[in-house]
Design brief:
about 300 residues, alpha+beta, Alpha-Beta Plaits, five-stranded antiparallel beta sheet, three-stranded antiparallel beta sheet, 8 helices, about 15% strand, transmembrane helix, DUF881
C-alpha cells in the first residue's frame, strides 16, 4: 500500500462519524424572567385583542362604570365596618371591665367561704378533742395527719416548676396538669408522707386537673410558678432525683428550646395546711326483707349521703 493510500485511510478514520452526545437543556429562571417579563396569559390576551380588534367604546365605558361602582361599594362597606368597630369598642371595654370585677368578687367570695370552712373545721376538731379521751385523741391525730385533714410540720422537699419563656408557642415549655400529677406521684413513691401544691393539701380525693387553660387542685385555681412541697424521710430528695420523672423535667429545663423551670430544694420546718374535709358518704345497715334475705340498695355506693 502506498503512502498516499495510507494517508487516505487515515483521513477516512479521522472523518468517521462519532456518536452524537444527547444535548442537555437547562432552564435559566433569571434569564427567562428578563426575556419574558409578562405571564403567558397576558400575551395570549393581547394577541386575542389584536386578532379581534379593540373593544367597542360602549363596552369600555360600561366596564369603567362597573369598576367605579364596585370600588365605591367596597369603600362604603369598609367605612361602615370601621364605624361599627369604633362605636362598639367602648361597650366591649365596659363589658370586659364588668366581667373582670364579677370574677374578682366571686373569687373573693370563694376565698372567704374557704377561710370560713377552715375555721369551722378547726372548731369541730377542737370540740371533738375536748370530748375524746387522751388515748383515742392521739390515734385520731395520726389518722387525720395521714389523711391530710390536719396541719403537719417537718423537713422535706420543695419542687418548683414554672412555664418556660416560649410557653405561648411551645406546649412542651408549659407546665400542664399532667406534669404536676407526675411529680406528685414520684414524690409519693419516694416516701412523701404529706404533699401540698401552692398551699393546697393533697388527700386521696384531691384531683389535679385542667380547667381550660388553668390548673385546678381540688377546688382551687393555681398559677405558675408551682411549688410542690412534700414532707418525708431525710433521703426523699435523693430518691426523687433518681426517678425518671426528675430526669425528664431536668432535661426540659436544660433544653434551650423549652427552658422550663425545675428546681428541687431541701427545706427544714415545712408547714403544710390541712385540707378542707370533703363531703362524706355514710354506710347504712340494710333492713332484711320479709323473706329473710337483705334487700338490695338503690344507691350506687350502697348507702346514703
Amino acid at each position: 500500500m502506498s503512502e498516499r493510500d495510507t494517508g487516505s485511510v487515515s483521513e477516512e478514520r479521522r472523518t468517521e462519524p462519532t456518536p452524537a452526545t444527547p444535548r442537555q437543556w437547562q432552564t435559566d429562571m433569571l434569564s427567562d424572567l428578563f426575556r419574558y417579563p409578562l405571564d403567558a396569559g397576558y400575551t395570549d390576551a393581547a394577541a386575542a385583542r389584536r386578532k379581534h380588534g379593540p373593544l367597542p367604546a360602549g363596552t369600555r365605558r360600561v366596564r369603567r362604570i362597573v369598576t367605579v361602582v364596585a370600588c365605591l361599594i367596597i369603600g362604603v362597606l369598609f367605612s361602615v365596618a370601621y364605624l361599627q368597630v369604633v362605636e362598639r369598642a367602648p361597650g366591649r371595654a365596659t363589658a370586659r371591665a364588668g366581667l373582670i370585677r364579677d370574677i374578682e368578687q366571686r373569687q373573693e367570695h370563694t376565698n372567704g367561704l374557704a377561710r370560713r370552712a377552715e375555721a369551722l373545721q378547726a372548731e369541730v376538731f377542737k370540740l371533738r378533742e375536748e370530748a375524746l379521751a387522751d388515748t383515742s385523741l392521739g390515734q385520731l391525730r395520726e389518722v387525720e395527719a395521714a389523711a391530710g385533714m390536719r396541719k403537719v410540720t417537718g423537713d422535706g422537699v420543695v419542687v418548683t416548676m414554672a412555664d418556660g419563656p416560649n410557653a405561648a408557642g411551645e406546649r412542651l415549655a408549659q407546665v400542664l396538669d399532667v406534669d404536676l400529677q407526675l411529680v406528685t406521684n414520684a414524690l409519693w413513691a419516694s416516701g412523701a408522707e404529706a404533699i401540698s401544691v401552692n398551699g393546697q393539701r393533697l388527700t386521696a380525693a384531691t384531683p389535679i386537673r385542667a380547667a381550660g387553660s388553668a390548673i385546678v387542685v381540688g377546688n382551687a385555681h393555681v398559677i405558675s410558678p408551682y411549688e410542690v412541697a412534700a414532707i418525708g424521710p431525710s433521703d426523699m430528695a435523693d430518691r426523687f432525683n433518681e426517678t425518671e420523672t426528675a430526669s425528664v423535667y431536668r432535661a426540659y429545663a436544660d433544653d434551650k428550646q423549652y427552658e422550663m423551670r425545675f428546681d428541687v430544694d431541701e427545706r427544714d420546718d415545712l408547714e403544710l395546711p390541712a385540707a378542707v374535709m370533703p363531703r362524706l358518704r355514710y354506710a347504712t345497715v340494710p333492713q332484711p326483707s320479709p323473706s329473710g334475705s337483705p334487700s338490695p340498695s338503690t344507691s350506687p355506693s350502697g348507702g346514703g349521703k
